[in-house]
């Protein structure tokens, strides 16, 4: 591929903070990768280049591309990572400076949620607010200043004081010697901010800092970036028109304020779209033109012949059947089904399409299904591994203490928990009752078998450790029963277990394996299996389609209150975010773009989305 002159200029320019303002399909990733290659060719050390990607999958893809382009082996790129993974690499080494012990544990989503649920219950708050409280605490941390956040937003519902829950939650994590995802960033920021020697050692280590998808950074990530960079060696790429993670704490202002923040900043604009036909690019431009909070760029494509069509239907079933039949005719024209995607704003919209596709016998794949590490059998095995290496991890130990069933009921667990003194974990307490032999013989034996197993596997390779647990406790028999004689369900769980064993076999220690597994859970919208290669039409939320491309795209359910979502309607900031989401959907299409709505959905009448009219206007110009 021949790089364009502006791509080349951006790649070759060094020495001042650089922002590459890129349109959709303009080759951001290509530029970022080639920038790293160019730095290496100019004498920079590949081991001292920090290149931040948005997902673990993107980091892996970038590393393999770098191996291909430079001929260097994979281990020469230790700092091509996500924010969380780069920060954790630093934090796990220096955490004693913040009062933690090595090894530091990551509390992954499941453990974080369980801990929060327990705290909300203990504080006698309504459990229906667990999600909202967790989300606010996460946002508070990602703002970089939780106290200021709680001053602005002190409560959820009328009585839940966020700062209070936050304090209890933080204490609990600290006593478990653990950090959650947000703390990985927050504590690394504290570490680098408060320990000059550590900060300088990393500033000296990193010769260049690069950041992909810069439009989706949050204030904390921006603070961290500044702590890593020395001498302005910063190179960021992104598209503010595609910033769609506000709900997770991303802040488009980090991107927009770049030229103000770095006085000598150099800005490049990548405006040529290599993916979509110009008709699609112009439709997208017209739509985003209705946003005010953005950087200007004039996107274009040299490809022509794109088709953009709007279709209105009486209800969702009619819409889905029409989409199905259209897909059949496109496939008859020779378009492979995996190059076709149906995108929607919210998950529930998929149901009518699933039904229609089954009826019409159209193969399809759902994107963004439950993450691999959130599946029951994987959580079970990982909890065994965690309980073995992290004796203070109550969440994991509680999960496995009676799994598979070994006669340890709720009452027994409560009795054991009651003997705990300060700082003692449930596992410590079990060890204590075992040494004092105070339980009945049956319970004593069951608990000692469990503790023996945990001690036995601790030093094993992770795959051997999992095998040991599977065989000691007849776990697969238990899982078969759990699957309630649903053989397909059991087969898929068995496949998951094989996959877990395979990925564990690549690591030498349980700690190494768990660290990777926990960090991978960051990729929330990203599918764990690479479904983009599998045959079948893709059914996906727009969030999960980010970064992907299809020959044909159907954007369905374009109705007011559904898209834009009703929750966003009273705020201009949120409305602009919804419009950016529509922009992302449109720019996934290479050649065909079909936008549709239904007058009735779930029995309720609907108006066309305002985005519909904005697009319609652009088509009639
Ligand atoms: N100079 C070029 N000439 C031809 N094709 C190019 C050039 N640069 C990039 N491309 C191609 O354009 C396509 C889009 O590139 P890429 O996926 O990097 O875009 P992107 O900016 O990350 O897109 P988006 O943000 O919309 O997901 C890719 O297929 C890439 O190979």
UniProtKB/TrEMBL annotation:
It comes from Desulfonema magnum. Residues 1-277 form the UvrD-like helicase ATP-binding domain. Its EC number is 5.6.2.4. It comes from the Bacteria. It catalyses: ATP + H2O = ADP + phosphate + H(+); Couples ATP hydrolysis with the unwinding of duplex DNA by translocating in the 3'-5' direction. ATP binds at residues 22-29. It is an enzyme of class 5 (isomerase). InterPro entries: DExx_box_DNA_helicase_dom_sf, DNA_helicase_UvrD-like_C, DNA_helicase_UvrD/REP, P-loop_NTPase, UvrD-like_ATP-bd. Pfam families: UvrD-helicase, UvrD_C. This is DNA 3'-5' helicase. The keyword Nucleotide-binding applies. One of its GO terms (biological process) is recombinational repair. Keywords: ATP-binding, DNA-binding, Helicase, Hydrolase, Isomerase, Nucleotide-binding. Residues 278-547 form the UvrD-like helicase C-terminal domain. GO terms for molecular function: 3'-5' DNA helicase activity; ATP binding; DNA binding; hydrolase activity. Belongs to the helicase family. UvrD subfamily. One of its GO terms (cellular component) is cytosol.
